[in-house]
Design brief:
mainly alpha; 5 helices
């Protein structure tokens, strides 16, 4: 029969785990790009640090949009960093290109954080 599955908890949990790992990797990638751009390193705010927890409080459609956006940003950052490292390895100055990637990263990251529930710049809700 073609009945739809009645439980999705494993799939949702796997998606949340991969998004959490991808988010952590993006934050580290942002640090690399900032260093290559000659920018001072940012101290991640509460929303950035708690993104995976705060994302669970979002409605399903926002959670899916955020997960897709995180994957999209990762798809941009990976070849971008590779290109910056190649530029640097050739002895050229990677700062102009790194600054452009840094701006794209910041705009995208901030848009993703904008999907989180309002007031999430404070501590996430604790449930017992």
């Amino acid at each position: 029969m073609n009945a739809p599955p009645t439980h999705f908890s494993n799939r949702a949990s796997a998606g949340a785990n991969s998004t959490s790992l991808r988010w952590a990797a993006l934050i580290e990638a942002g640090k690399v790009v900032a260093a290559l751009a000659g920018m001072p390193l940012e101290q991640p705010g509460r929303q950035i640090r708690n993104f995976p927890v705060l994302l669970r409080e979002c409605p399903a459609w926002k959670r899916e949009l955020a997960e897709n956006s995180v994957a999209d940003l990762a798809a941009v950052m990976e070849p971008g960093i590779s290109a910056l490292l190649a530029i640097s390895a050739r002895g050229a100055d990677p700062r102009p290109a790194a600054r452009a990637l840094w701006q794209e990263y910041c705009v995208s990251r901030d848009a993703i954080l904008g999907l989180l529930p309002k007031g999430s710049e404070h501590a996430p809700r604790r449930t017992a």
